[in-house]
Structure formats: C-alpha cells, structure tokens
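Example record

The entry below shows one chain as it appears in the dataset: sequence first, then structure tokens.
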Amino acid sequence: MNILFVNMYYYPNIMGGAERSLQLLAETLVRRGHSVSVYTLDGATCSSLSSPEDINGVTVYRGYSKAIYERRILGHKKPLYKILNGLHSVRNPAANADLKVVFDAARPDVVHTNNPVSISYWIWKYARARGARVVHTLRDYWLLDPTTVLGRSPGWFTTLFRAYTRRLSRSVDFVTAPSAYVLNEFSSRGYFPSSSANVVVNAVDVDLELLESCRAAHAARSGGPVVFLYAGQLTPAKGVDGLLSTFASLASPDVRLVVCGAGELESLVKETAAADPRVSFLGKLTSEELAAEYNKADVVVVPSQWAEPFGRIVIEAAQYAVPCIGTDRGGIPEIIRTLQCGEVYAAEDWDALRSLLEKFTDREVIASQIKALPHTLPAYSLDTQAAAFERIYEA
C-alpha cells in the first residue's frame, strides 16, 4: 500500500511528541511492507521535490516556507511570520503546488494527515479528488482554536474559525485520536460528521527484556534518595511552577527532583535548583539522554494543567519500569489506568500531589506499581498501533 503522511515537521525536526509518534509509525509501516512517504514544510531552502530524502526507508519530501523556517526552526518571533502561518493554514499556494508534484510521484492510496497547519487543509479535498482515502489524526486542538490552547482566542473569532474548520472536516473519511478525550472534544462540537472514528493510541518500541531488567534494577534499589523526574516544556500550562513549589514543601532530605526541558519558566527552575540542592536542572535533552534519565528515575511526574491530547512521556517512562504521577487532564489518566502503573490526581490540587509524592517515597509502593507492566505495556507497541492503522487504511 502507498501511504502519504502530511505534517508540518518531520525528523530530524522533532518539535514534540507528535513528530516522534509520526516517525515511529512511518518507519514501522515500512518494516511491515508498505511504501511510505512524508510531505512536510520544514525545509531549509526552496523546495527540491525532485530529490527527496530517504530516512530509514521513508521517502521525505520537504517543502519550504520562510515563515515556518524562520519562526519555528530558527526561533525568530516576528509577528509577520505568525500571521503568515495562520493565513497559510487557510490557503498556501506554494504547498498546494508541491503536493500535486508529490501526488504524481508517490501515487498514494491513503493520505494520512497529522498536523498540516500552514500546509492548509485543502489537502483533504484534493486527496479525495485524486481518489485517495483520507485519514486524519487529531494531535492537538488547532481545529478548535488556532493557538491550540482552548479558550485562548476571542469568542467571536473562535465561533467563525470553528464554523470554517467544521466545514473542512467533512472531507475526511476516518478520524483518529490518541485518546478518547480528544475524540469526544471534537465530536461534541460537530466535527467530522461524516467520518468514521476510533481511538488509536501512540506507541513506543516495546522491549520486554529491557522492561524486565529495569524492574529488577528497581527491586535492587534498597537505599538512596527517591528520584522524581519531570521532562517537558517549562511553562505554566505544564504545571512546572506548581510542581516546584509542592516539591519544596516536602520535608524529607532523601528525595530528588530532576527537571528536563526548555521554556519560559527556565529561570525559575534554575533559581529553585540553586536554592535547593535536592533539585537538578538538565535543560533540553536528546532522546538518548532522556532514556538515561528514565533509567535513573524512580517516578515520573506529569503535573499538566491543560488537557494533554495524549502524554507520550507516560508510556516512555513505563518502558523503563518507571511509574507516573499525573493529573486528570486530557489523555493522561487514560494511559495511567490502562498501564495500571501510577496514580492520578485532580489538577490544581497541589495538596493531593504532595500526598502522592510522599506516598511514592516508599520503594515498596513503587515496586507494587510496576507489577502489571509486562501485561499492559504491549497495548502501546508499535506493531499494535500499525495494525490498527492498517485496518483503517484498508476499510
């Protein structure tokens, strides 16, 4: 089967969990015998579609958008680029022309869009006109609010914006999301009225031998401080400030908090680490560096104050036999309860978080939390996810 993914970014331009999830899915489908291509707008120079890249068997066509490259890749925050990103989401003539070339080369049976912001949702109608099956995965809330944060845009603008994007969504054959929460958010607002829909969770490269060795390592940790790990964007929406103040209230000297990431609260994290020797700040890590931190950690904390569409860190940590303390927002509680590994608390209830941090200082509690993982983690394997999408593609 010929499958074309459409997303604003692709490896090595990993902006978040969505890009990592897409890369893993694309490469797994190649391994399962499919012809997989990706069209993205993160090129550094004017588009050269006649010479696509081969990345682990995936054919990558990189278009070029100065607005995306300058604003997203280089970090230049000029207002003009933000305006252009928004306008191009409605119509992007350059990307439309690129996609016609890509269609002629890739001849997709299925077009699977993920985050085509700035590429424009024109792709849905065009793919249908070319006879391809159209599948869309909801990885954020952009169709509900162009800021991707619900409620941030003015009410009058949100009303107009949703009327427009609801109409566009009629061209999708099948819509998926990594959590039931996200699907319900869209269906309750009248999106994708003619589409079939299902939850297809994100995945990790499940290694049960690695899991067992990590479980054994946890069992052998009889002493030393309990290490809590936070990894993600350093923003109020992620709850980093509340986590820092709650951790500071713990009386025990035998605990550590390791913070990884970048964002507007970086200075606060550095100040806290300088004042409290129990707190360490490591900055933004590569995938390999983060894996090493999972190996050292005892518990991952996800104090998100916004509705995470999924929460990839929860399953990544589980691969290393690390339980999770997470809020009840978005898809986070769905994963923790499916894995049976961790605890959920009400967001903004910092007393509840403090109680859970204290609870997990007991290593016997940690050991009991990770018992089910060999049976529950395979639900998030790459092959399980790929098989689910194959059924959707072939329906």
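Notes for this example: DSSP finds 17 helices and 14 strands in the chain. The chain has a mean pLDDT of 91.
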